[in-house]
Amino acid sequence: MKTVQKKICLLGDFSVGKTSLIRQFVEERFEETYLSTIGVHMSRKRLERENHFLNFFIWDLAGGEDFDVIGPNYLRGAAGAIIVCDLTRQETLPALSLYARRMRAMNPEAALVFVGNKHDLVNDRVITDAMIQTEITPLADQFLLTSAKTGENVNRAFELLADQIEG
Predict the structure, then answer these.
(1) Tens digit of pLDDT for each residue in 43-102?
(2) In the chain, N or C terminus with fewer CB closer than 10 Å?
(3) Which burial class, exposed, middle or buried, applies to 67 when counting CB atoms under 10 A from its CB (0-12, 13-18, 19+)?
C-alpha cells in the first residue's frame, strides 16, 4: 500500500490544549502538568485510510505573542490545521478566525477543522456552541467539542482533517 505524507499544524492561543490534543492522538495519554510550547514541536502519526496510509507530520506551534514572531513561516507547506479554543476562556475564541486567516494567507486551499477543547470541564465552560459558530462563519459550518483529557472527539478531529485534505 502506498503512503501519503502531509504536514498539518495545531493552532490556537497559549494553554488551549494543543499539545495535549496531539499527545492524546499520537500517544493515547494525557498529562496534568502544563509546559508551554516554545517555538515548534513536531510529532508523527500514521493513519490507515481506505487504500493507503496517511502520515501526518504534526506541527505544534506556540500560541499567542510567540506565534506572531515565529509562526507564519512554519505554516508554509501545511495541508491543513486544527484550530483550537479553550471552552473555559472566552478570550481564546477570537483566535479561531485569526489563526484561520493566517493559515489561509499562507495556504489558500488549506483544510481547517475548528475545535472547542476542554469539554470535560462542564462547570467551567463559558463559550457556547452558538459563540463558536458565529466566530467561524463564514470559514466553516461545523466544529467539534473535544477533551484531550478524556479523548472525546480527539481522533475524530484528526480524521475529519484527513477527510478534508484528501477530499
Answers:
(1) 999 999 999 999 999 999 877 665 655 566 788 899 999 999 999 999 999 999 999 999
(2) C
(3) buried
Q: Which runs of E-coded beta strand occur in the chain?
A: 3-11, 40-48, 53-61, 80-86, 111-117, 144-145
Domains within the chain, CATH numbers bracketed = 3-166 (3.40.50.300)
- Name the β-bridge partners of 13: none
Closest CA to 79 of 148, 163, 3: 163
Does this model's pTM top 0.85? Answer: yes
- Look up residue 141 and give its three cell numbers: 459550518
Q: Cα torsion at 6, 7, 12, 14 (round to 10°)?
A: 130
| AA letter at 57 | F
